[in-house]
Amino acid sequence: MFKFIIGELGLHQDNPIVQLDMSSYKTGRREVLATHAQVQAIREARMMSKERKGTGLSIPTASGPMFACIIDMSYLLWARGIDIRMLKESQIEDGRIRIKPSKTQKPAARPSTLSSRLRLPK
What is the rounded CA–CA span in Å between residue 89 and residue 112? Predict the structure, then answer.
C-alpha cells in the first residue's frame, strides 16, 4: 500500500514501516482449515450476483464458472488462488502439476498428482 502511496501518488515521503524491527516477529501456520461445506458455500456464492434492488432477483455471473474452477483446484491442490491463476501448461508434466508458490521461496515437497482425481487428458 505504501509503495503505491509513495511511488505512484507521491502523497508521503517515506515508509514508516521500514523503520520497524520485525526480526523477532514470527508467523505461525494456520490451525483451522476451511471445511468442505465452507468451500462449497464460497464456490456457490460466486456463481450468482447479489440480489437486485427492487426485484430481489439474482443472475448467474460471467466469472462464476472460472472462479469455481480456481476454488476447486486451490482446494484440491492446497495452493493459493494466485498460484492457480498463474499456472502455465509447461508446469504439467507426466500427469502432475508442479506449482511454484508465489508466497514462499520453498516449492512443495512433491508435485501434486492429478490423474487420479481430475482425469487429465493424455
Answer: 14
C-alpha cell at 37: 461445506
For cell 461445506, the residue is: 37
**Hey, what amino acid is at 57?**
L
Distance CA 38, CA 44 (A): 10
Q: With beta carbons less than 8 A apart as the criterion, state whether 98 and 63 touch.
A: no
Cut 0.85: pTM above it: no
pLDDT attached to residue 97 = 86
Contacts of 22 (CB under 8 A, 6+ apart): none
Find, among 78, 121, 117, 69, the residue nearest to 99 by Cα. 78
The answer on pLDDT for 37 being more than 90 is yes
92 close to 82: Cβ distance less than 8 angstroms: no
Length of the chain: 122
